[in-house]
Amino acid sequence: MSKQIDTVAELEAIIGKTPLPMMLKVIDHLDEGALRWIGLSPFIVTAFGDASGIAVTMAGGKFGFASAGVRELRLPTALLDDAALARPDVGFASLFPLPGITETLRVNGRVTEVRHDEICIAVEECYGHCGKALIRSDFWTAPPLASPPSDLSAFIADCRFLALATTDAQGRADLSPKGDPVGMMVHFEGSRLWFADRPGNRRVDSFRNIITQPRVAAALLIPGSTRVVRLSGTAHMTDDAAIRAQFSVQDKTPALAIGIDDLSITMSESRALAQARLWPAAGRPDIDPAKVFMEHIKLNKTNGLGARLTSAALSVPGAAGLLKKTLEHEYKNNLY
Fold first, then answer.
1. Which residue among 65, 147, 194, 297 is least enclosed by CB atoms within 10 Å?
2. Predicted TM-score of the model (pTM)
């Protein structure tokens, strides 16, 4: 019998526990690879929030518009769509995509200072996210759209990418990428919006957050368009078979569906997307995501035999190539 998912135990019974290697990808600072990644990025999706709620906005400009040190990320206020969301001590989460690269870098932390020209964020987490969401949404292969849907319902029906923002009970923010083919990203059931959980990083941060703090926010994009739909509401999760069946792709049905009620929805032009000029995608930057993420695992400070063995295995010659092949296998055989 289907039901609403109200506990972490119920959640893990459906989607499993996060494997140790996924947790080992997280470091508490920006290493050399992360700093280079940020320096190559023309665009980020961001979320600012606390235990009372969260909102999504974006920032964009020329490559390297964001600046950073080992422990701090700095964003120019003029390049954010909604810089007013940033307030001292609120949680921060972000996704850094790179043109032509499906993997993204995620940086989380807390706002320490809001100056007239920049927002300062203390970095608490940095890790890589696999490329499945961007692959499913054809994010980088999209052509520029001269005339995207101007009707809100039509835009939502055509969207292929969703960034879900949540917070935990302590106000720590999380921003998770979701992607699907056109017509499959979100569905409406009356006034409730549904989307599916697909294979990805196998981290359950956002889902745990929904259980403890169900106020969420999201941004919906049509790759190729500079318009964005931003929404907020109250989320819940279910394993209802009929709801999940609406999201079946390639004969694969997701294990979980997320519904959002009490919706507040707006559509607008994103100055950040226009400034970033993401489409058509520029040449692929000279950076190896597998190598960057492998270094993060080596730098992770988690103790224990499993962590030590994983780190040791990635220190052998050829480990980066093996990790790349593993990712390619996942993208080909476990995309949905």
1. 147
2. 0.92
